[in-house]
């Protein structure tokens, strides 16, 4: 019997209304400035004129499968990477494109202070999400 692992990468499509094309920064991982997200400023989003959808994902948690389900600490999170890449491929192919993707919860598994493993998880997370279409803003919560 094969054990299949499930990573919680919940995808929700939510229908809302909006009138603004979102602005993109070169560094998609540092968009929060002065308690706002670049491209999501209140002044630019006061009136909704047309429908849009967005993606909400949670707990990519690079490293969790190995640590908790396989009881190992070899520094591998290939399964989480593969699942996230599969999701990004699907999001990039959507027509129309989502207005943004928001990822909530634990992005990586290791806590601050668990270097260099945590730094590698963060670097891999950023590398994987570079594949997200540049026309789809990424929001990390």
How does this structure look, described?
- Keywords: Signal.
- This is Calcineurin-like phosphoesterase domain-containing protein.
- InterPro entries: Metallo-depent_PP-like, STPP_CPPED1.
- It is a single chain.
- By secondary structure, this protein is an alpha/beta fold.
- The chain has a single domain, classed as 4-Layer Sandwich (Purple Acid Phosphatase, chain A, domain 2), CATH 3.60.21.
- It has three helices and six strands; from the N terminus they run ββββααβαβ.
- The strands form two sheets. Strands 1-4-5-6 form a four-stranded mixed sheet, with no helix packed on it. Strands 2-3 form a two-stranded antiparallel sheet.
- α3 links the parallel β5 and β6.
- α2 packs parallel to α3.
- It is globular, with a radius of gyration of 17 Å.
- The N and C termini lie far apart (37 Å).
- What form results from the Cα inertia axes? globular
Tally of separate domains: 1
Strand order of the largest sheet: 1-4-5-6
> Span from first to last CA?
37 Å
Helix content: 10-25%
**Whole-number average pLDDT?**
80
CATH architectural designation: 4-Layer Sandwich
Number of E strands = 6
Signal peptide: 1-18
Protein name: Calcineurin-like phosphoesterase domain-containing protein
Keywords: Signal
């Amino acid at each position: 019997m094969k054990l299949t692992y499930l990573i919680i990468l919940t995808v929700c499509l939510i229908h809302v209304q909006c009138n603004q094309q979102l602005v993109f920064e070169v560094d998609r991982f540092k968009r929060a400035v002065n308690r706002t997200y670049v491209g999501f400023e209140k002044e630019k989003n006061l009136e909704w004129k047309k429908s849009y959808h967005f993606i909400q994902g949670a707990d990519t948690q690079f490293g969790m499968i190995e640590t908790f389900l396989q009881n190992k600490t070899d520094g591998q999170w290939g399964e989480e990477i593969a699942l996230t890449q599969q999701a990004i491929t699907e999001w990039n192919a959507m027509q129309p494109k989502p207005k943004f993707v928001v990822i909530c919860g634990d992005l990586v598994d290791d806590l601050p202070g668990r270097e260099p493993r945590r730094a590698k998880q963060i670097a891999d997370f950023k590398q994987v999400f570079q594949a997200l279409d540049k026309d789809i803003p990424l929001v990390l919560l």
